[in-house]
Fold:
Amino acid sequence: MAGAFEQLQQCLKRLPGLGYRSAERLALHLLVEKPDKAEELLQRLRTATEQVAACPRCGNLCEGDLCEICADPRRDAGVLCVVETVPDLRAMEHAGAYRGHYHVLQGKLSPIHDVGPEQLSIESLRERIESGPYTEVILALSNDIEGESTCHYLQEEVLARPDLKVTRIGFGLPSGGGIPFADATTLRSALEGRRAFE
Structure:
């Protein structure tokens, strides 16, 4: 059985963006260089785990009844941007080019990985479209095969309302690229260059 240090390193290595060396450096930093910071980190993780949940309306991070975006009356209530994940939403917000509402799908359709419509928040999107005041839905999904097939599914099964304008970002995003990896200028261009989705 691995020792406590190795177990910590393996746990850190499972975090996105951390390989073996990065996990080792982080573990050493917390245990040797800054042991006083380890307790603060543990407390912050406990607090966040207890207080942060998914927004019941859009799926964003939330500490109250609704997230800050859904609760903000200054947002454009007629436009809904559909994204795959919370990091995608946060990247769009950091770009500063969009002032409407969001819906987080929690992924994209992927038959290879057994991800169907039931595993995504598609039903809640359908309910929002049917009951909401939306005039435009922006599909801000990744520019790959699974992202495209998810867009087509949404267009045919959820967004078929005749008075609803459906657009797709894409200009400036590389094929196969994801929203969290694009810079703010690229995301602004993608939003401004959106096109009608067919």
The chain has two domains: 4-51, 71-196.
